[in-house]
Specification:
With 247 residues, the chain is an alpha/beta fold. The protein is built from seven helices and ten strands. The protein binds adenosine-5'-triphosphate and magnesium ion. Residues 13, 15, 20, 22, 40, 42-48 line the site of adenosine-5'-triphosphate (ATP).
């Protein structure tokens, strides 16, 4: 099953009267449950592609299927609901809400669901523990290190149990030790729960973790490479009862 499928997708931006083509007629599929790294020089269209997958922007042409559903055919409301239920986002600059604590940031995507408060609190607590931040639950983002902020952002991305996590340069603002621990954490989550990850990066350490590498150059796909033998990876296990992702 493809978690993401592009069918003849093009994207142009318009600046005044000038049309700037950015992605050119892309057709490809990404298998579910993989750690996929989108690689390409600055300006090649990585963020543009991720924004399309996440339904944050619309293609100029073509169809995009996420978890088998054509996101271009959804109403705005349906797309917002679909995104909330199936896709988690992690950003380079963490994008936490500065006036909310770590726990409140993680809880935030659950506030517009029908989940009762006690269940919400329990899930947030488990997730903060899963990312190693139980002791920082009541800290504001400004009171956390960069790596800790990114852990909060990862917990927030997972809180609604998405099928796909999209991350745009998630380690670009982190030092190399913190990058390694954030990568380990994402890799662990991807393997343990079978969640698909799609990350844009230029970082060699991120590349080394990829099951699949998509090489983007000037808005075209040069190559899709299986960089890690599927048999060598641990098969996805059901979430243990104590994990942040258990029901
Ligand atoms: N909102 C926009 N309006 C006009 N042009 C844009 C817009 N966003 C991106 N572009 C242009 O699209 C091209 C691709 O940009 P994009 O941000 O997708 O690249 P990227 O691969 O993510 O680069 P980086 O590695 O620097 O983040 C660039 O030439 C950029 O200038
Ligand atoms: Mg970018």
């Amino acid at each position: 099953m493809h978690v993401v499928e592009f069918r003849k997708v093009s994207k142009s931006y318009t600046a005044g009267k000038i049309e700037l083509p950015v992605l050119h007629d892309l057709s490809f599929g990404i298998d579910a449950g993989k750690f996929v790294v989108l690689l390409g020089p600055s300006g090649s269209g990585k963020s543009t592609l991720l924004n399309l997958v996440g339904g944050l922007d619309l293609p100029t042409q073509g169809d995009i299927l996420v978890c088998g559903e054509d996101i271009g055919r959804m109403s705005d409301d349906a797309l917002t609901r679909f995104r909330g239920a199936h896709v988690g986002f992690i950003f380079q600059s963490f994008n936490l809400i500065p006036v909310l604590t770590a726990a409140e940031n993680v809880e935030y995507p659950l506030l517009n669901t029908s989940m009762p408060a006690d269940r919400r609190k329990r899930r947030v607590k488990r997730l903060l523990a899963a990312v190693g931040l139980e002791a920082r639950a009541n800290h504001l983002p400004g009171e956390l290190s960069g790596g800790q902020r990114q852990r909060v952002a990862i917990a927030r991305a997972l809180v609604r149990k998405p099928k796909l996590v999209i991350a745009d340069e998630p380690t670009a603002n982190l030092d190399s030790r913190t990058t390694a621990s954030i990568l380990d954490l994402m890799r662990h989550i991807q393997r343990q729960y079978g969640i698909s990850f799609l990350l844009a990066s230029h970082d060699a350490r991120v590349m080394r973790e990829a099951d699949v590498t998509i090489h983007l150059l000037d808005g075209s796909i040069r190559q899709i490479e299986t960089t890690r033998d599927a048999d060598a990876s641990v098969p996805p296990a059901p979430p243990p009862a104590s994990s942040g992702l258990a029901p």
